[in-house]
Write a structure and sequence with these properties.
This protein is an alpha+beta fold. Helices cover 13% and strands 24% of the residues. The relative contact order is 0.11.
Length: 598
């Protein structure tokens, strides 16, 4: 029975309401995402993403490039900051203290208004390496991020309480010179933060009240993954109140800060700072106006006073309190990491105005699209992901019949391709071991071709083939995003199509309403509400490609199944590739598909 367009829209609205309720019922929060959940955030450069968790690299896996050596609190010297952080993963005595060679200590104290040392709450004072003087920390720019780091250094693993950040000082303590400290919030010592000498005429200085509470959280409090209790109003405000970031990773909107479409909140100052924080890069997109506005308007602190900005301009600056720059070191580590050339066509194409209802593709418009020839016929498509590997649907191939298949690249028209088009015999077929042909669960397979040219580039010899990037997180794209499907599938009336066609469709989150018990977690559905563009028979195994803010193409879905091609109310169903990143990497090698944190 055909579903009308009005009925389809009503079903969609009902489902949106259901999803909103589900989020408020803590379905995301229950997964207990933290700063080490790489399905939500990027791992640190001394970590790598494995099965959704950031795990530490071994020290020898760090880049050899560096700006500084590093010295630990136990006076052990390391060649680089990255190596030290890798070692710290297994032993906290390797926390960063200063640059190498090891001379002097970075010391942190808490003191009361009488100058006496305290254990848990008080004014923050710092003694820098090779200096005898103790410095107060300026109250300007001292936030929960910095307070959490200070308490972490003092062995309070849950960080700071959010109740008190500034303490009064007596007149005889009111020297103007103080240290301005700026942290990212993930550091384990203040020595890793940016520290500058500054002045302040206020009668307040930075302080902390370190968190230590074993009681259960109250009704109006949020329970962080690390067990810390914070005010419920402090979640989704762009600030890492929990210290493990668990309060900012399941936010359908942000009270303050910038909202990434992966539903995390980041501070406003992280926007357009040259460092990608959102998984799809939208925080570094369209930055011209934002940067211009920042240059015109001074930043103010919570009391409305203009903040004194201290840009990081390099080491050995006279105003620096310390002569190393951890931010520059981290940027160098990131820039030194191997990067994949995927998802960007060698020749960009001008898109024509807006598969069933789609448009004919131009040459090299979809350079990751391949055709799978089964005997004498092309019945399925595939996606090139690098090396000698092609991704496709499990229902397109048989694991014990590799000799039947051949991969054709740069094919536009199935009836008129010449001898210049490359084709590769298939060496092996890897069908997902849990593929269910009755339900199409785990409808995914890998084809490994024979390296006929015996070159490291394998399939990319003398052609315009480009690998599509493989997504590692199921949150990189979401319902409502516009993506592109391509293939040689049937057209209106199920008539045959010989020229590669494509069309824009939208990701949808309502297939469980339409297909009920036939739709499973690792599936994605996409289409148009009126059914005007859809994948169909013959498109199977082909790509559903979504692009991030930098226009990099990711193979988000594999054409799997559907009902009534091009009919309103029945969107196409795709295998959601992000759920299979680990499975793919086990077969092809992590370095081939890991765009970040190889």
């Amino acid at each position: 029975m055909k579903t009308s367009r009005l009925t389809w829209c009503m079903l969609s609205l009902i489902y949106v309401c259901i999803v909103t309720v589900a989020v408020s019922d803590n379905t995301c929060w229950e997964k207990k995402y933290t700063i080490n959940s790489c399905h939500k955030v990027f791992c640190a450069p001394w970590q790598r993403c494995v099965d959704g968790k950031c795990i530490c690299k071994l020290p020898y896996q760090c880049s050899r490039n560096k700006t500084i050596g590093a010295c630990s609190e136990s006076n052990k010297a390391f060649l680089s900051y990255c190596q030290l952080k890798s070692a710290e993963c297994t032993n906290s005595k390797y926390r960063f203290a200063s640059e190498s060679p090891c001379s002097g200590k970075f010391e942190l104290f808490l003191k009361n208004s009488n100058g006496e040392k305290t254990n848990k709450e008080g004014l923050v004072k710092i003694r820098l390496p090779k200096q005898d003087k103790e410095f107060f920390v300026c109250s300007e720019k001292w936030t929960i991020r910095e307070a959490n780091v200070a308490c972490r250094q003092l062995e309070f693993s849950q960080g700071a309480s959010s109740k008190k950040f500034q303490f009064n000082i007596s007149d005889d303590q009111k020297e103007q010179e103080c240290l301005q400290v700026t942290c990212r919030g993930s550091e384990t010592t203040l020595a890793e933060c940016t520290i500058k000498k500054s002045t302040s005429s206020r009668n307040k200085r930075a302080g902390v009240s370190c968190y230590k509470d074993t009681n259960a959280c109250e009704d109006q409090q949020f329970t962080c993954v690390n067990g810390k209790c914070i005010d419920i109003n402090n979640i989704c405000n762009g600030q890492n109140d929990c210290g493990d970031l668990s309060d900012e990773l399941c936010c359908t909107e942000c009270k303050k800060g910038f909202h990434c479409k992966s539903d995390i909140c980041i501070p406003d100052e992280y926007m357009c700072n040259g460092d990608v924080d959102c998984l799809s890069g939208e925080d570094e997109f369209n930055c011209t106006e934002i940067l211009a506005a920042r240059s015109k308007n001074p930043v103010t602190d919570d009391d409305g006073d203009a903040k004194s900005e201290h840009p990081v301009t390099g080491v050995n600056e006279k105003s620096n309190a310390v002569d190393y720059d951890i931010d520059a070191e981290i940027k160098l580590i990131k820039d030194s990491a191997p990067s994949l050339n995927c998802g960007v066509p060698k020749v960009e194409h001008v898109r024509v105005k807006r598969i069933i209802g789609g448009h004919k593709a131009e040459k090299n418009q979809f350079p990751w699209q391949v055709a799978i020839k089964d005997g004498t016929k092309v019945n399925c498509g595939g996606i090139y992901i690098g090396g000698c590997w092609v991704l496709t649907a499990a229902h397109c191939v048989r694991s014990d019949q590799a000799q039947r298949y051949r991969i054709i690249v740069e094919l536009l028209d199935r009836l008129s391709y010449d001898g210049d088009i490359d084709s590769f015999p298939v060496k092996s077929v890897k069908v997902h071991e849990l593929y269910n042909p009755n339900t199409y669960e785990n409808d995914i397979a890998l084809l490994e071709v024979i390296n006929i040219y015996n070159e490291p580039a394998c399939m990319q010899v003398d052609n315009n083939l480009v690998a599509a990037c493989v997504p590692w997180s199921p949150f990189q794209f979401k319902s409502g995003d516009t993506c592109t499907v391509s293939g040689w599938g049937r057209a209106e009336g199920l008539s045959k199509v010989f020229h590669l066609k494509w069309g824009h469709i939208n990701l949808m989150n309502n297939c469980s309403t339409v297909y009920k018990e036939r739709f499973f977690d690792k599936m994605e559905c996409a289409g148009t509400y009126d059914g005007s563009i859809d994948s169909c028979k013959g498109d199977s195994g082909g790509p559903l490609v979504c692009r991030d803010a930098n226009n990099v193409a990711y193979v988000w879905g594999i054409v799997s199944w559907g009902e009534n091609c091009g009919e309103a109310g029945f969107p196409g169903v795709y295998t959601k590739v992000a759920h299979y990143f680990e499975w793919i990497s086990r077969h092809v090698g992590r370095q081939l598909i890991s765009k970040y944190n190889i």
